[in-house]
Specification:
Elements (H helix, E strand, L loop, with lengths): L2 E6 L10 H12 L4 E6 L17 E4 L2 E4 L1 H11 L9 H33 L2 H15 L3 H5 L4 H8 L4 H6 L10 H14 L13 H18 L5
Parallel strand pairs: 1-2
Antiparallel strand pairs: 1-3, 3-4
Bound molecules: glutathione.
Glutathione (GSH) binds next to helix 1 and helix 2.
Amino acid sequence: MSLKLYDLALSDPDLRPSPFCWMVKFALLHKELEFETIPVGFADKSVYPDPDYGRVPVIVDGDETVKDSAAILAWLDKAYPENPLAATEGEAAAAEFYRAWLFASFFPAVSPMLAGRIHALAAEEDKDYFRASREERFGKTLEELAALPDQKKKTEESLLVLSGPLGRYRFLGGSRPNVCDYTVMGAFMWPRLSSAEDIYEAPQPVAAWMERMLDLFDGYARKAKRPS
Ligand SMILES: N[C@@H](CCC(=O)N[C@@H](CS)C(=O)NCC(=O)O)C(=O)O
């Protein structure tokens, strides 16, 4: 029986931009594990495997239910030790650094540009919930968020930190992708799949690494549907 991954979907069920779900999708592909994705919207928590938690990704593997992307990635290495995502404690620690960087730098820069776009793409029944929850979270209306100046520049500046490791190595994991690459590229799938056009320009060598990540696993991420 294949693993089930609960994944966030927009009004078009093939639009799946959730960054945390993408971290898990990359990890499952790396592990060469078969999985099926189960699309859920934002508002109706009754269809979530854990309605009180009310978030995705959640993995259901037989009797086991695992939630939260970081916990799922760590659990995958324990439950399926082949093809480790983090082969050493050092790699796991580096992934924690990259996750912290996403929250400190990348997400704050890019989120204001995405909230209105995702609202426009969300299913009708999700729009009120999405607007209310995001406006409460940010303390601004979606329109105020979209009008914030400099978010594109801030996003591009946030990426400069990756130029260090990616100037020396093909992947954040060195010669091969590891949990660090999947954590960061998972986050980068969010803007990619919330807009028909790229909303920022990644500096080199980050842009070239992104192309390599899109090519992995027979172009799985490159083939993911973008809005038209
Ligand atoms: N810490 C969690 C965060 C998960 C999360 O926030 N997921 C979003 C989708 S990207 C979600 O479930 N949103 C539902 C909602 O906003 O109600 C993780 O890393 O998995």
